[in-house]
## 1
Amino acid sequence: MKIVLANPRGFCAGVERAVQIVERALQKFGRPLYVRHEIVHNKAVVDELRAKGVRFVDDLDEVPEGSVVVFSAHGVPESVYAQAEAKRLVVIDAACPLVKKVHNSAKRHDAENRTVILIGHAGHPEVVGTMGQIKGKMLLVATPEDVARLEVPEGAQLAYITQTTFSVNETRATIDALRARFPDIIGPQRGDTCYATTNRQQAVEQLCARIDLLLVVGSANSSNSMRLKEMGRALGVKSYLVDGPEEIHDSWFEGAERVGISSGASAPEHIVQDVIAQLRAKYPVESVEELTTLNENIHFALPEILREERE
């Protein structure tokens, strides 16, 4: 068996920043530290932080007044900030700067009296947060078929924004459908898909030309991880999503000589290495090589409340 690793893979700058925010906040404020929703969508990351004293809550009603609370990397609706202020909470916002950029676009379009259309998956925390940025109604679509069924106010000026972790190909197809039906609509030509989502999907696309089987390390509630698995299957490669080596099944590897491995933007590298170790232990692995499509060198600054003097 030969193992080929996609590069880039794993933590993006937004996830790295969010995890670092929680760890720095623990050092500065101590326990308990509250985090609204999972800081990122990865079971291993959440379990590791919980073991350090982080309390993950679904709602701010579970947070005592005056406590320190971190908002997740996915962003939150404006109403959550108001609720936090009413409870006198110390808020540390770990929302990815690229998600905040989409929020600002929504607010700008709303201020210009445009009806905002969001391309994304209903119920995803990022989508919930983005739809809660404006007081006016935001419309949600996910596919070209949704665009065909869309009902918009007569004579409305339209603008679109997109979920940052949406599939590149899905985003492109839905934007094309919006532009075909509403020629005057405005929005980013390629959507708001973040660099990490784009880079990891491109890496998997190239990887799939060289492998028989694809393993994507990531959690099932991670949108970008799911898209990588779906991309592999769309390219005709047997593809599976695993949280770790314990979820791997022997039956997957029948006839597989070249195994590709990638990981979602919220999956830690040590889990990838655990998967490789498992394969080495069970199969005659001839080599492990990396297929590098590009090198990422992007970093986001921490919130001022957590910066050290040397920063």
Note: The longest strand covers residues 2-7.
## 2
Amino acid sequence: MTKLTAKKVENTKPRSTEYKLHDGDGLFLRIRPSGAKSWLFSFSLPGDRRLIRMTLGSVDRLSLKEARSMLPSLHKLVASGIDPRNARAAAQTENTQAVSMQSLFDTWIEFIKLTGTITPAWIKRHEDRWRLHLKKNLGNLFAKDVTRAHLAGALDAMSRKGIKEETRKALTTLNLMLDYGLTRHVIEHNPARMLKPKDFAATAGRSRERALSLSELRTLWDTLDQATEVRKGVAKTSVLSLITASAIKLLILTGARRGEVAGMRWDELNIKENLWTLPSSRTKNRKQHVIYLGELALTLIETLKPLTGNTPFVFDTGLSTGHIHTDSLTTAINRLKKSAPLNELESFTIHDLRRSAATAWGEHLKVKPHVIEQMLNHQPLNKLIAIYQRATYSDEQKAAWLAWDEMVQHQIASKLDNIVLINITKRDGGKKFA
């Protein structure tokens, strides 16, 4: 029997009736009266003499060489007693049901939004990370086909840009979404679990320890005042708006996270009771948190009422984005640090203000560590304590915040040239903290 050639396949002419040309090993070329040509595979299953023909594809889409390359796997299926037609149908069904990495990411994001397991701010960070760094290399791949090599390639591309912290967090994003796909049987295993941040030089650095002293906080506060000082109807500098400066001052007074302060809403405030109640949807640990506001904090907030009182947000920008962005606070601090007197201080970040407040509560007000942890809305590291210890120490927290507000008034925000440490007295009961 003469084997077919590519030229013969191309030049074969149709007849009045369908006919077939044998290439060998069960492969046939079928030519229809219309001139359409396709490949057939002829086989019989073990123990069954019936001859079965299976269409492999048209000549237009499948060359002679490609058709021949399919034969070994087809014969292997037949030898195992598997009908190749059923195997192909199963594969087609699997491919139809397969989801892309983009679809998996979208489904996972929608799931965590519905469950409320993490804050909207963290959800947005996952979305931005995917959009900016991962989507291009991974979005169009079938999730079931993604390998460690695919993931490593995307993370290597990030690492080469020098964004090590984002690379580490991107691996976390991938792990979370692929774990979700694993529990939904979208994938058989999570290849990201075999990767570590150190593989991409993205191991987390040492925790920061910077805490500003009272004198350094005073320097910062004075710089904020000067940056928003108005002279002849024009701001002394173009560095800060009153809204931005006030937000930074509230960070010092409350020790809250920058996202919590930036998104402060008027309906979260009870001015008569001196309370700011953060709903669980806006806290990192998804637990409602109450912060007591002293005289200085309330004054700062009241000053903003003519500017933003008709909007939902205390620190409303007047733009379509709504409240001030957390990155704007970071940018403001970085700009201020470029000039005297802040450029003479040891470098610090916006998050260091939270640590500075907590440090001052313990060092100067002698607030107990467990009360400070409550004021910071931290989850206890000990799981048994988290389960069984439900005390909030609200009276102690209130006293500490009001004492801190008074200390900031006298030793940080005042215009006196000399700082004199004073005793800060608990408002209820007269107990001294320092």
Note: Confidence is low (pLDDT under 50) at residues 231-238, 384-390, 417-434.
## 3
Amino acid sequence: METQNIVRKANEYIFNLFKEKLSKKLVYHNYRHTFDTAQEAEDLGKLHKLSPEELQDLVLAAWFHDAGYINKYEGHEAESARFASEWLAKQNYPEERIQRVVDCIMATKHGTEPENLLHELLVDADMSNIGKSNFFATAELLRVEWEIFQDRSFSDREWEQFQMDFLLSTTFHTNEAQRKYAEQLGLNIQEQRSRLSKETKKQKKQDKKHYETMAQPKRGIETMFRNTYRTHLNLSAIADNKANMMISLNAIILSVIITYLSAKSSVIGTDFAQHRTLLIPVGTLLATTLGSVIFAIISAQPEITSFALKKNKNKMVSRNVNLLFFGNFTRIPLEDFQTGMNEIMSDKRSLYNNMITDIYYLGEVLSRKYKILRISYTIFMVGLVLTVIAFTIAVVFNQTVATKFPPL
């Protein structure tokens, strides 16, 4: 069996297989990459003066090493080995040489250490693009392919750093590959370092612009905080005034009812014995008035939200803790408070975070005040309605009784 004959058949088979079944979205691992790998494998094999049989097995492995991408992306090496073994078996290829081809293909799996020269040559041929002038163009194709098939997205800075790390960590296994690709690999590393430096400067410039926008004491930001604080304080004052109004009104009603009942205690036995139904509206008014005033007092009472800082200096400048609020800083020693304040004043982001946190918890207090105040007003309103209804029913009932049973 002639070497060129079987290799040519493998070339034609892979070409037709990729043309019919390989996804067009595989912009890197396609026939072009396979063709280049086979060419490099043959050149490296000749430089190492391999025997014709070894060279033929190496080139065949190169032609089939990415055939598995037809069926799967991850773990394609096993599929590639299956394609090779099945096709070579149909060509009546010797069994021991089929196994050698399969072993070479499996050696290209990421993280696998080559065990012999043929393995090293194929791995070097597969990675030969890092030592070529078109490295950056093919790398962009691989980036696109990873985004599609592996959902791996990189920013420009991240990609340049990844490529830099890859170039510095990747070495060729054979001396011939090192000599063949070393010069261009060095140039690629220099170019990649330059690209990374540009992206790093660009990123720092963007970060600086962002931080300056956040940190500068812009009038708009100051106005926003000032108006927000003023609005919260005004709403809090309104809620307290409404609560005080309910407390005063209900306290007057309670005082009048209790005073009247106390003063008329001597006639309760006579008057109320004849008009016991009046106890229902009076009792309703007392109960609802008491409930309303209780909720109004709860709404108006001071509330302090604080955190147990426990001298944790990292937590003192946390985004979740407002060190500007007396309910927090009075729970820590003066020295820790001074330290925390100095750190806040030296970092405008921390200052803004503390102000934002303060507004958030002011909003929580306001929300609770208005919810409880609403309950107080609702109880008062419902109580008045029920009292009037009960009083009307009691009066009608008493008149009906008086009509049917006139006094002797």
Note: The chain has 16 helices and no strands.
